From TrEMBL:
PROSITE patterns: ABC_TRANSPORTER_1. It is found in: Membrane. This is Protein white-like. It is a multi-pass membrane protein. Belongs to the ABC transporter superfamily. ABCG family. Eye pigment precursor importer (TC 3.A.1.204) subfamily. The chain crosses the membrane at residues 292-313, 374-399, 411-432, 439-461, 528-548. Its main location: membrane. Keywords: Membrane, Transmembrane, Transmembrane helix, Transport. Residues 16-127 form the ABC transporter domain. The lineage of its organism: Eukaryota, Metazoa, Spiralia, Lophotrochozoa, Brachiopoda. Residues 156-211 form the ABC transporter family G domain.
Length: 554
C-alpha cells in the first residue's frame, strides 16, 4: 500500500514501476486518491465534528465556499454513522475518555471521504476490531463502493461474512500473483488445482493456509505456491485481466484520473493562509484543552512559586528592612533556582508532547494538507501565550514573597528575564525533540545537555574562570546572560549590607556582589538582546532539523 500510494517510503527500497491501465503513475496519485492507514491517528482533544471541519478546510478545493465545506462535513457524519458521537471528543488513552475503536475507524474513513475521491486505499481496516465491528466497517466501505468509488483493501483474518462482501480478490504469495478475479471465482480456481476448500471452513483461512510457507516444509510449500501461481498465469482469470488492461489502455484518451495521477507531484488544496488559519485553530484548541499543556503546568508553577516563597520568605530583616550576609547567600541561590526551574519546567513539556504529535503531522503532511513551515509556525504561536503566562505567574508570586528588591523596574526586569529564559528552554526543547527519533531518546538527552549550560551560569563557576576551550558553550547558554541581568538588577541599588556582630563581611554593598561574580551593569541590554537571539536562533535550528527530517522521510 505504501508503494502504491507513494506514502511512508522513506525506509523502503523500491524497484520497478506502478502503472494504471498501462501508464506509469507518480506521486500525483495522491491528487485523485486517499489512503486510510492501519493506525488511527488523531488529536484527541478535538471532537469528531471539529476534526472533520479541520480536514474539510484543508482537503477540499480552495474555491469551495466555507458553508459548503461544513455542509459536506454533516453529510459525511451522517453517511458514516457518526451522528451520535459527533460532539464527543476523540479521546486520549488514559487521559481523556473518547469514542470507541469502531467509531474511530469510521472517523478515519469519514476524514478521507470528505473530498469524495474516486480511489481509496485501506490498509487492514478491520485490524483490532471484533467481528461485528469489522463487518460494520466493511459494510460502510461496500456502501461507498456502490456509489462509484474504487476501494482497495488489505485485510487480516477476515470472517467468512466479511470475506464474502468483497467483489474482487487478489492473493499474493512469494511476490507473485496467486489469484486475481471475482471473489466467488477463487473457489473454482483452487478446486481445479485440487486445493478444494472444506465444507463449513472459512475460505479466507483456507487460501492463506494453502499459500503459507510453513517452517520445516519450505521446499514443499514453495513448490505448491509456484504450482498455484503458474496455474493462475495460464488461467482464464489472468487472460481476462490482460485483455481488459489492453482495452483500457486503448480507450484512455483524455482521462482526468490518469492525467492527475501521472502529473508530477501532489499539490496543496489550501493556500498558505488557509493552511495557517486551520492549523493555528487546531493548535490553539489542543493547547487550551489538553490538561497537561496548560492547566497542570499553571498549577505546578503556582505550587512551586509558593513553596519557594515560603522557604525563602522575606529575606530582608522583617523589622528594619535591610539585607544581611545570610540574605545575600539565600537570594543569590534563589535567583539561580528561579532560572533553573523555569528552564526545566518549560523544556520538558515540549519534549513530552512534541514527539507524540509527529505521527499526526507526518500523516497530514503526506496527505498534502499543510506545509512544514505552517505547522511549525502555528505550534509556536499557539503555545507562546502559555510560555509567557506561567513564568509571569511564577515570578509575581515568588518575587514579592521572598522580598527581592522592592522596585517596579526591578520586578519588570526579573519577570521579563524569566519569560525569556522559559522560551529559550522551550526552543532548546524543540531542538532535542526534532533531533531525537523517539520520546525515550529525547527524555534521555535533555538533562545531560541542559546541565552543562547551568554550570556556565555564573553561580557555580565565575565568568572569568571559564576555560577557553569551553567558551563556545558559555556563549550558547542562556544562564550567564539571564543570571547577570537579575543579579545586577537585584543588587545595583543596595547601598548597605549588614554584618553580624561587627564581624568581617564578604559583601558590604550590592556592588560588591556584582563585582564578585564579574558582572557588569552595562551588559543588561546586551544580555536581553542575546536572550532574544538565542530564543529565535534555537527555534530556527529546530525548524531546520525538522525540515530536513521531513524531507528525508519524503
Amino acid at each position: 500500500m505504501n508503494v502504491l500510494t507513494y506514502r511512508n517510503r522513506g525506509n523502503l527500497v523500491v524497484d520497478g514501476t506502478v502503472k494504471v491501465n498501462g501508464k506509469v503513475i507518480g506521486p500525483g496519485i495522491t491528487n485523485v486518491s486517499v489512503y486510510v492507514q492501519q493506525e488511527d491517528l488523531f488529536i484527541g482533544v478535538l471532537t469528531v465534528r471539529e476534526h472533520l471541519q479541520f480536514q474539510a478546510q484543508l482537503r477540499m478545493d480552495r474555491e469551495v465556499p466555507f458553508e459548503e465545506r461544513m455542509d459536506r462535513v454533516e453529510e459525511v457524519i451522517e453517511e458514516t454513522g457518526l451522528s451520535k458521537c459527533a460532539d464527543t471528543r476523540i479521546g486520549i488513552p488514559g487521559r481523556i475518555k473518547g469514542i470507541s475503536g469502531g467509531e474511530m475507524k469510521r472517523l478515519s474513513f469519514a476524514s478521507e471521504a470528505l473530498t469524495d475521491p474516486p480511489l481509496m486505499f485501506c490498509d487492514e481496516p478491520t485490524s483490532g476490531l471484533d467481528s461485528f465491528m469489522a463487518e460494520s466497517i466493511v459494510h460502510t466501505l461496500k456502501t461507498m463502493a456502490r456509489k462509484g468509488k474504487t476501494i482497495l483493501c488489505t485485510i487480516h483474518q477476515p470472517s467468512s461474512q466479511v470475506f464474502a462482501m468483497f467483489d474482487q480478490l487478489l492473493l499474493l504469495a512469494e511476490g507473485r500473483v496467486a489469484y486475481m478475479g471475482p471473489t466467488a471465482g477463487a473457489f473454482k480456481f483452487f478446486q481445479e488445482l485440487n486445493f478444494t476448500c472444506p465444507p463449513n471452513f472459512n475460505p479466507a483461512d483456507h487460501f492463506i493456509h494453502t499459500l503459507a510457507i510453513k517452517p520445516g516444509q519450505v521446499d514443499t510449500c514453495k513448490q505448491r505456491v509456484n504450482e498455484i501461481c503458474d496455474g493462475y498465469d495460464s488461467s482464464p482469470f489472468s487472460k481476462a485481466i490482460q485483455d481488459n488492461m489492453a482495452e483500457q489502455g486503448q480507450e484512455n484518451g483524455d482521462n482526468f484520473f490518469l492525467d492527475a495521477a501521472i502529473s508530477g507531484k501532489a499539490v496543496y488544496k489550501a493556500n498558505w493562509f488557509q493552511q495557517f488559519r486551520a492549523v493555528f485553530w487546531r493548535s490553539w484548541l489542543t493547547m487550551v484543552r489538553d490538561p497537561m499543556a496548560y492547566r497542570i503546568r499553571t498549577i505546578q508553577s503556582i505550587f512551586i512559586a509558593v513553596l519557594l516563597g515560603l522557604i525563602y520568605l522575606r529575606q530582608p530583616d522583617k523589622n528594619e528592612g535591610y539585607y544581611d550576609q545570610s540574605a545575600v547567600q539565600n537570594i543569590n541561590g534563589l535567583m539561580f533556582l528561579l532560572l533553573t526551574n523555569n528552564s526545566f519546567a518549560n523544556m520538558f513539556p515540549v519534549i513530552n508532547t512534541f514527539p507524540l504529535e509527529i505521527p499526526v503531522f507526518k500523516r497530514d503532511h503526506n496527505n498534502g494538507m499543510y506545509r512544514t513551515d505552517v505547522y511549525f509556525l502555528c505550534k509556536t504561536f499557539a503555545e507562546f501565550p502559555s510560555y509567557v503566562i506561567t513564568p509571569l505567574i511564577f515570578s509575581a508570586i515568588a518575587y514579592w514573597m521572598v522580598g527581592l528588591y522592592p522596585g517596579g523596574e526591578e520586578f519588570l526586569f526579573n519577570m521579563a528575564v524569566l519569560i525569556l529564559v522559559a522560551n529559550c528552554a522551550v526552543s532548546f526543547g524543540y531542538i532535542i525533540s526534532t533531533a531525537a527519533n523517539s520520546l525515550t531518546v529525547a527524555l534521555a538527552l535533555a538533562p545531560p545537555l541542559l546541565i552543562p549550560f547551568m554550570l556556565f551560569g555564573g553561580f557555580f563557576l565565575n565568568q572569568d574562570s571559564v576555560p577557553v576551550y569551553f567558551i563556545w558553550l558559555n556563549y550558547m547558554s542562556w544562564f550567564p546572560y539571564s543570571n547577570e541581568v537579575i543579579t545586577v538588577v537585584q543588587w545595583r541599588n543596595v547601598d548597605t549590607i549588614r554584618c553580624h556582630n561587627g564581624t568581617s563581611c564578604a559583601f558590604r554593598t550590592g556592588q560588591d556582589i556584582i563585582d564578585y561574580y564579574s558582572f557588569k551593569e552595562e551588559n543588561i541590554l546586551r544580555n536581553i538582546l542575546l536572550l532574544v537571539a538565542l530564543l529565535v536562533g534555537y527555534r530556527l535550528i529546530a525548524y531546520i532539523i525538522f525540515l530536513i527530517k521531513t524531507w528525508k522521510r519524503e
